[in-house]
Structure formats: structure tokens, C-alpha cells
Design a protein that fits this description.
By secondary structure, the protein is an alpha/beta fold. Helices cover 39% and strands 18% of the residues. The radius of gyration is 19 Å and the shape is globular.
């Protein structure tokens, strides 16, 4: 029996990526496969100290002797530039993702095994697979709690504009299984905030994505931190944000900071072209280098619009 590796992007290991890797590997094992979750980067700030204490296991990468006959499932990414080095495209048997840009590419390669859909959380897709395959009642408490947290995190507590009814339905169903306190969601976002303020530089570095936009003839660096209260963070740490993102030696960058408590999004950029795009395509109102919008926008939504310019 070929071993199956379930893995994710190398740039960031956020709540959604981690939950999908671990819970989908569990589903494959429930079906009688030999599967392991591989998480090549330490979890980002969206995976709080409490969540890290939950009973889950993963490996960083396969052993060299395992790679010869190993197949892979990619979760929460479709961009080959983000795949771990141990993954060869010809060994990929499935992809689950909710980011745009490579749908046609993967459909041509693996057909219906490429499940790429524009919803709030990739975790929703994984839960739907548990249901389709008849294993919803056999999911572990750990995987149920991870998927619960991932949907809350990636939909920004269901306030993000990309949130779909499928996310809400999946969350409702998982809530009946996962043993979570009633006040857990607010505590989760506050815990993130406390962690971020302990080491803001690392928090910024933990969630940076470099995306190539062939239609614009450029790459754009997009940093992101989702906070219960993000305006203060942007104002207090503007010099640090600039320093970290300018260290990537690429002038085209912006920093995205959704404010969950207020339902607003704040962005910071020094680049005039990006500022113009954010104003004209999203409606941001800028005061100097900081833009404000009266709704929540996540990075994947910026990428989708920029790819269509």
C-alpha cells in the first residue's frame, strides 16, 4: 500500500492549513489508508497556545526512503510555487483548496480530484468529505475541534465577505460534535492578540505570502494579521511592518489587517500603484499610507481581484 502524505504550503501554516492537513490524514486512515500529515513550517499565530496543546501529531517532512512510492494530497493551496520541495507534481493525487488562480491547471492534471471552490474555509471542504464518505460520526474530538477553529478563523467569525452558507452549515454540524465552550470564539481571537503583541515581528513574518500576477507583470508581497482590534496594531507598529516587508527586497507590498470586532479592514502600503488598486477596486479610503474599509477582506479576496485586472 502506497503511503499518502497530506501537506500544505511552505510559506505559512495557519489555522486552516493545519486543521486540513491533520483532519484529512485522519479521514484517509479511517478509510484504511496509510496517511501522515506533514506540516513543513511551525504553526502561525492563528494557532494559539491552547490549540497547540490539543492532542494532534504531524511530521515536518517524509523520510528519504519513504518518498519513492509516496503520493500526496495538497490542502489549502494550489500554487505549485508554494509546495514543499519533497512534493513532485506527478505524485499529487488530490487537492483541496479555496484560493483562485490554478483551477484550470489542476483540473487538467487530476480532473475531479481537484476540489477548488470559493468558500470561506478549506476546512469546510474537508468536513464535507467526512460526510460524503460516511465518517462524520467517527471523526476524533481533536480533528473536530481543529476544523471548528479553522472555520471560525478563516471566515473571521463569519464576517468575512467570502463566507458561504456551506461554511455556516459545516460549522453548525461540527459544533454538535466538538466539545467547545460557549465563549471560546472571543477567547480565541483575544488569545491570538496577546500572542502577537508578545512578538510582533515574528507574528508579521509568520503570515506573508508572495504571489505572482502574470497579468500585472509583477509579484506582490501580502502580509496579513487578523485581530480582534487591528487598527491599534497598524498604528503602533507601522515602522516595524515596513521594515519587515521591505526586507523582502520587493517594492510592491501591502499589509492587510482585518479588525474582527469592528467589521473593518485596515491596509498599509507605501506603493502608489497598489494604493490606487485598493482604492478603485475595493473602495479603501486612505489617510497617508493607511487605508480603511467598512467590511472584512482577506488576502485571498485581494488575490482573486488582482488576478482579474
Amino acid at each position: 500500500m502506497n503511503k499518502i502524505g497530506v501537506t500544505q504550503a511552505i510559506y505559512t501554516s495557519d489555522m486552516d492549513s493545519l486543521a486540513c492537513s491533520i483532519s484529512y490524514a485522519e479521514l484517509l486512515n479511517l478509510q484504511g489508508n496509510n496517511a501522515t500529515a506533514y506540516v513543513p513550517k511551525d504553526p502561525a499565530q492563528s494557532v494559539t497556545k491552547e490549540i497547540k496543546s490539543w492532542d494532534f501529531k504531524y511530521e515536518i517532512e517524509p523520510k528519504p526512503e519513504e518518498l519513492e512510492n509516496m503520493k500526496f494530497v495538497l490542502v489549502d493551496t494550489t500554487d505549485p510555487h508554494t509546495f514543499p520541495k519533497f512534493v513532485k507534481e506527478e505524485d499529487i493525487i488530490e487537492i483541496y483548496d479555496h484560493h483562485v488562480g490554478y483551477e484550470e491547471y489542476w483540473t487538467k492534471k487530476i480532473g475531479e480530484k481537484a476540489k477548488i471552490e470559493p468558500i470561506g474555509a478549506c476546512a469546510t471542504l474537508i468536513w464535507e468529505e467526512y460526510k460524503k464518505r460516511g465518517f462524520a460520526e467517527k471523526i476524533s474530538q481533536t480533528s473536530a475541534k481543529l476544523l471548528y477553529a479553522a472555520i471560525v478563523s478563516n471566515t473571521l467569525n463569519f464576517k468575512a465577505s467570502i463566507t458561504s452558507p456551506r461554511d455556516a452549515e459545516a460549522f453548525k454540524e461540527i459544533s454538535l460534535i466538538a466539545d467547545m465552550p460557549k465563549d471560546w470564539i472571543e477567547k480565541y481571537f483575544i488569545d491570538q492578540e496577546e500572542y502577537i503583541y508578545q512578538n510582533p515581528r515574528q507574528a508579521i513574518l509568520d503570515d506573508i505570502k508572495i504571489t505572482e500576477f502574470p497579468n500585472l507583470g509583477t509579484k506582490i508581497i501580502i502580509g496579513q494579521i487578523e485581530l480582534w482590534e487591528s487598527k491599534k496594531f497598524v498604528n503602533d507598529y507601522t515602522p516595524l511592518i515596513k521594515e519587515v516587508l521591505n526586507n523582502f527586497d520587493h517594492k510592491k507590498w501591502f499589509f492587510n489587517a482585518p479588525c474582527i470586532s469592528m467589521g473593518k479592514t485596515y491596509v498599509l502600503t507605501e506603493n502608489a500603484d497598489i494604493k490606487k488598486n485598493l482604492e478603485s477596486n475595493f473602495g479603501f479610503v486612505f489617510e497617508n499610507e493607511v487605508g480603511e474599509l467598512n467590511k472584512l477582506i482577506e488576502r485571498k479576496e485581494f488575490v482573486k481581484v488582482f488576478l482579474e485586472l
